[in-house]
Structures are given as C-alpha cells and as structure tokens.
Amino acid sequence: MTTRMFGQKIKRREDPRLVTGNGRYLDDLANGSVAAAFVRSPHAHADIVDIDVTGAIDVEGVIAVWTHEDLPGQAADRLPMLIPHPSIVAPHTGFALAQDHVNFVGEPIVMVIARDRYIAEDAAGRIEVDYEFLDPIVGVEQSREGQRIVHAGMDDNVAAHYVQEVGDVASGLDRAPHTLDLDLEFERSACMPMEGKGVIAAWNREDESLQVHSSTQTSTGLRAALAARLEIPLTRVEVITPDVGGAFGVKINHPWPEELAVACAARALGTTVKWTEDRREHFISSAHERAQTQSVKVGFDDDGRILSLDVKFWHDNGAYIPYGVIVPLNTSTHVTGPYNIANYRVEYWSLYTNTVMVTPYRGAGRAHAVFMMERTVDAIADELGMDRTQVRLNNFVREFPHPMGVTMQDGAEGCLDSGDFVTSLDKLKALVGWDDFEAYRDQARAEGRTVGLGIGCYVESTGAGPYEGGHIEVESSGRVNVWTGLTTHGQAHATVFAQIVADALGVPIDTVHVATGDTRKLPYSVGTWGSRGAVMAGNALHLTAQKVKAKALTIAGESLEADPEDLEIIDGIISVKGDPSAAMPLAAVSVLSNPLRYAFDESAKAATQFAKESNAEEPSVKPGEQPGLEEQEFFSPLRSTVANGMHAAIVETDPETADITILRYCVVHDCGPMINPMVVEGQVHGGVAQGVGGALYERMAYDEDGQLLNASFMDFLMPFASEIPYVETDHLETPSPLNPLGIKGAGEAGTIPTATTIASAIEDAEGFPIRAMPLDPSTLWELRNKHAAGEVPGPKAGGLGSADSAPPSTAGHK
Amino acid sequence: MTQMSAAEAAAEPRSTIRLSVNGKDHVLDVPDRKLLSDVLRQDLELTGTHVGCEHGVCGACTVQLDGDPIRSCLIFAASAQSHEVTTVEGIGDDPENPADVQQAFIDSHGLQCGFCTPGFITTIDAFVNENPHPSEEEAREAISGNLCRCTGYQNIVKAVQRTAELRGGCGQDCCGKDAPEVSQ
pTM (2 decimals)? Predict the structure, then answer.
C-alpha cells in the first residue's frame, strides 16, 4: 500500500535548486538586455510645469527617454480600477508615467532606457523636472479634516464609504448593562519582500508577440491588462512568473506603471527591456498597508457577553486605489471574529492622502479588525474583573456553519464553516500555561522583573474564488506534468501540489513535476492572494488528477479486459484489485491514449496503427474523447472557507528603559487538514515574524511634507533573527465542508493576531491600556509617564491578569 | 554588448581586472564603478548571489572573501582583486549533490522563497568553520546580520545547528536536536 502523501512532512522539492544558486528570479533572466530606470517625483503633491530631458539624451548609451506623451493609445490612459466595489465613491488611479501632476513621492514621471542600469540611472539623474508645489495631505487626520484635497475636483478626500449592519445595533446598545468606548490607532508598514518587483518584456518582431516575465502574484491578470492596454490580441501576449523572492501581497496589483511602460518600450524598440526595482523604489513607490484610525462602541452584559458592537474606522488608502477597497472591506468583515455577536454595525471611510498607495499586505485588513475586537474584549474583561479567556469563552460561536451576515470581498455572505474555538482555547491555555501565569508573574516580580501575558483570537476568510484550475499530463515516460495558473513565492507549491496529485492519481511523488504561473500552459487563473493557493489550486489539482485517473482506468480497462471499476493505481501501476498479475504501468496507458502514425521510440511503437488489432467499427479517437493522457479541471467554491487560530505571548518590559522582550510566543492554528505540516508551520513562523515587526518595530515615517524618512533597511526596522521569538505551535484540524480536501488557507494566519496579542501582553505587564501599535520603547516610556500623571486610565478591576496562582509553567523553551 | 566608443570610455572609466571566483581565475574588462555583486551576476553569470537592498543591510548578496563573509554590494569588483571570492555556487552548485550547509537548509525547512538563502549559506558556512559547536543562542546570533522575510528565522537557526551536525563537529548537547522529522 502506498503511503498517503497528504499530511506528511515531505521535504521541499524546490529546495535543492534554490539552495545551490540555481533559482531563476526575475533579475537573473535576460542578462545583457537593455535596462529601464525611472525619474520619480521627489514631491508629494505638485503640478509638473516642465520636463527637460536634454541632459539625459546626451548620455552615451541611452536608447530612449519617455514621458507621458510617448505612451501609445490606451497605455496613456489612467491605470485600471481593478476591483470595483459599491462603496467606492471617487475612484482615482495613476498613470504609467505621470501626466502634469504628481500625488506622492516616488510616482514615476520619466522612463529612461539605456544599455545598462548604471547608464540609465546616470541619465535619469540628468533629467530636470520643474514643479509647482501644492500642499500635501499626510495621515488620516489631515485627510479626514478635508481642509486640503488630494484630487482636484473632489470636495473631500473620501475614496469610499461603506456601512454594513447585522441586527439592530442601536437597541442592542440601549439594552446593554455596560458600554465601553475605545479609540485605536494602527500604523503603516509594508510587505517588504527580499526581492522587489521587476519585469522583463521581450517583443518578437517576427510574429508581433510579447513575452513578459514578471515578479508578480498574477500572471493571468497581468497578461489580460497588458493585452488590453497595448491593444494587441490576447493570444499574442504571454506572461511567465519565474522564481519570486517573496511577495506577501504587494505583487498582486497589476499592471504596475513600470510593467506597462516597459512593455510599451519593448514593443516600440523591438527588443527586450528589463526593469528591476531597487530597495528605495520599493519603499517609496510600490505599496504600503495597515494605517487606520478606529473607534469602537461595545455593549455587554455582566458575563461579558457582547450584546452590540458599533465600529467606525478611517482607512488611509494613499494616493490611488487601483486595487479597490479590499483592505478596509476585509477589516470591516472580520471584526466579529470567532464571536457570536447578534448586533454589529461597521462604517468605514477610505481616504486619499499624498502617500504611496495602500494595497493588501499579508492579512490584508484582518490584522486591523482583530486589533479592534481583541482590544475590546480585553477591555471588557478589565471592566468586569474577569479572566480574559472567560470573556472569550462566553462569546465564542459554538455551532457551525455560522452565517456572519456581512458581505465579504468575494461578494458572498461570510460564514464560519468549521472550527472548534473552545478546544482551540483549551490547547492554547495548555501550551502557554495560562492558568499558571500568576505564579510566574509573582516569581518575576520578586526578581524585579515585569512580565505580562497576552492573547489574541481571530478568524480569516481564505480560499476566495472565483476559481482556479489544474492541468495534468502524463507523458509516455510516466512523468506527470502538473500546471496550475496561480503563482508561487515561497509557499512550497512544487511540493504540496505534488503530494495532492501523487495521492489522487496513485503515482510516486518523484514522478510529479509542478509548474505554476505560466500563461502558456494554463491561461485561466486568478492569482495567489488571500491564503487561497492550497485551497483553490490544491482542490483543482485534486479534481484534475481524479479525471486523469478515470481516463487512465478506462483505457487500461480495455487493454486488460477489465471493468475500470475493478482497477486501481498504486505507485504508477494499474492493476485489477486483488489480482496483481493483470497490470500495466500508467506510462503504457499514456502511450495507448495517443494513437500514433510515427514510432519515434520503443514506447511509441506500441501506439502505432499496426501495433494492435484495429476495430473497424470505431475510430482511433472516439467521439467526445481527446488523444493524450491529459486533463484540465477547475474548482470554484460557493464561498470562502474560514480558518481560525489563537495566539498567546509572554512579554517582559524593562522597568527603566521600557524595552520590550517577547519571552514566549504560542500559536494554536486551525487550517483544517494540513497537506504538509512542516510547510504550514513555516508559514506560521514567518507570519508571526512579520506580525512582530508590525507590533514592535516597523512604521513608515512620513513627515508633514509627505517625505518617507526611513526608506531604507538602515532606518526601517525590519526584524532580524535577534528580534524574533521562538514560536511554539499546536494545531487543530477541523475540516471545511466547502471543498473536497476539507482544507482552509494558512498563509496569513501568523500575521493577523500578532499585534493585538503583544499589545495584550504589554497591557497586562504595565497595567494600562495599549490602544496603538506599533509600540516602541520610547512610546511605552511616554505612556508610563502619562499613566503616572493620571492621563492614561489604569485597569478598573485591578486585575488584568489570569486565574489562580499555581507552579510556574515552562517559561522559555529549549 | 556593443563595443565602447571613446566618449563612453571617457564617461565611464573601465579597467581590466583579475578576479578569482570559486577557484577559477577570470580576466574581465569592467567599468571601475561596477559592484562585485553585479560583476558576479552579470559578467560571470553567477546569479546565485542576490541583491536585496544595495546598501549593505540585508545580507542577501553575502559572499566570502578569503573565507570571510562580506557584502558584495558594498565593494567594487576591482577591489576584490588579489582575494579569493566564494559564492553560493562555490559552496555547492549541484542540486543533486548539495553541500552540507545547503543540505542543512533542506533538512530544516530553512527557506521559503529562497531569495535571501544564498547570503545565509555563505554566512553560515564561514561561521560553522569558526564555531563547530554552536549553541542555539550562538546560532541565532550568527545569522542576525541577514534579513529573511519568509521564515521567521526559527528554521534557519536549526539549519545552522544541522550544518554543524552534518559537518561532524557537533557534540551531543548542542546542535541538530530540532530538525523536523521527514519521511523522504
């Protein structure tokens, strides 16, 4: 019997290539091609008065210098509004190259094409742009005030406004014995993949076709956008995604200005043009995430049961919204989390500012939602003097499916389809030693140390539609080629999809070869975002493999003179169940599946016209069938499946310096059955690390002029190994009823509750509320001073902690 | 590449340099200002050395100069003359037969997207040569000059200790205890 691959900690099949320097990332390709560099606006808000490119044209090695007026046809139009939504009241997008006006520092204005990047940057440095300055709008507060307007012609800076209500919030608040108000702040950070964006466009003059390589999260999306904007038939554009050095959301937007401008230049010059983003460009001109100002009003009873929740938030979307309102929409639909809240109302305003745009970053608005809800739950526990886990227990959803009543990013009503929050909480409490913490706190206090315990619970809608596909081909050698359209940037798709196909088809995993993100083989796909890769493409490939298997059994049944129902495939051999003597390899079925005239090798000879008896009454390929052991299938779910999890952290805060150290970090995670637990844990570790960055270190420091002051790795404090705690994990695997494999997404889980969990722990350590993240030592020190001066309220019930004392748990790890 | 004109040569001074990379000697005509990282990647087509920030912080471009880890984005190629440069390909370039430190990354799930990995591998290779018995803390300290955005570092710490174990220098109580169980 073959071991089931699903659920095994299979080592990654992509690793041997990547660890030996044999990866092929965007900038590794097309060596020697001409290079693009961009002149970008150094001002946040200005009219362009004049562009003088003379100095650039004189530079030896410069091939072309383009401004907006050089962009052809529809490439000169505003970039597309990719995701329309009813809440968008004033859609604004930029241009591939700015036309007359700039709205953020970093906006591309001129493209220089030169022999190499050094020359292109020399030339870009000699281009002079004259500006007439306008007052910039920076930050939520300034945008909300509306004294200054980002986009001329608007009366305010509101890009989108949306209200959703479930139940009756007003009467729920009226009825509630207790109410609380919370004002919260969440700062800007960014995905910051180690590889920035990049594009190579190659124009083939002979057949007038365009081949594009891009470090993207959606090759199909980019292909369609480029064909439309370059006004060439879709069939003459192909987009290939090479190895991608991390993405985390930022590479889902498309077409980027540079992708469109470079493709136009490649066509105009009839050559191959490459642009590789540098780190400063990535900081100032790609996309950020996270900044929101939030306001919560909650009504609850004496047991902490939430009777009504009224949420308002103001979301900084930067200068443009090509990716629509996915981030604030996700925030608005994830607030209630694992809790059963009958009356919920959310209202958001998405606001323009003169800063780089905001598009999804791992979690995509959900971390913000969880911050609001979990800070609120902790505040309820404090108000009532209850253990924080008890308040959560009293509010958990306990029956599934649980309709959420709000409309999600996929247009369907949200629904908690599976989970067991009570068990998850039990596991988390056991893992972190929740009930023993007070004893540990006492022991620490006796040593002059201040420690705190925090918790954060969340749900995450994952695996959104509309669809993904699989394409599987079995070669006559027995090699199984597997394609899916979505892209890969570290998720181990070459391994986990091979596990799924090996199981469903019954072949050794070593024979399965997975390729992703290449429109030449599978032009129907949506992309990799929202923890959907495994759910969508995994299930599509599972279904495709079953289809291939059915075809193989039909062909083998004819050959073995057996009913296909009586056949099975084990380790790539088809045999009659219980009779191993009647058997043939899948490779032989592949040969038979494609009737041949020409025998190019020994195995092909078996498929030629005279190799077998022909049936005069039937054509070689029967009506309705296709030659080849090759199938395509698609998976399209009714709605997103909702994963969930809970985190706990123990922190220590230095009484003098206010330095914050994470002593332990524990995660209980439920993404349904895990295809490869090693990969899931890796995703959780990485997600937590990004969450820790966002909680304690990372902030995009714009000044009042809209200049990003920390646009380098020297100044933007992305965590090194020295800042990241050891992550302890436990899993619950409740299957989803929404897909054949029962799986739920795992990619974003680590990041979503991290900020609130650490806030919860610091709050517990310090004894006053933490309402804004990130929190650095100087901010905490200032908060302490304000608390001492009575400006920040302390805990009402005097016991932010947990339950009874007991022997200390295993604080720290081996 | 087309031939340089005199004007270009004046605009961009060039020199003939001799570089020793992964045990091979090369004579190259390169612009004086060209970074070692770019010469490795473009002139020698050793694209395993990745460029993540071009200001010396992220460590993706780390190579060894006479066995010591350095940032190849922070020195000119010309400055690397008379030194022995070792890139990730010099540690091991065969996917079928990875070097011990590379195998340690595979065993420990020490990479996801793989972009930062070559810089970690060159760093760890040199570190374990100097410290064949790293504790977990020392392993973590050793990699704290390189950025990774995917893994949260936990499994890279394991990979350091696994390297020591595979290199045979490891005692019983230091490294390699946390490598994941794998069925293949």
Answer: 0.95
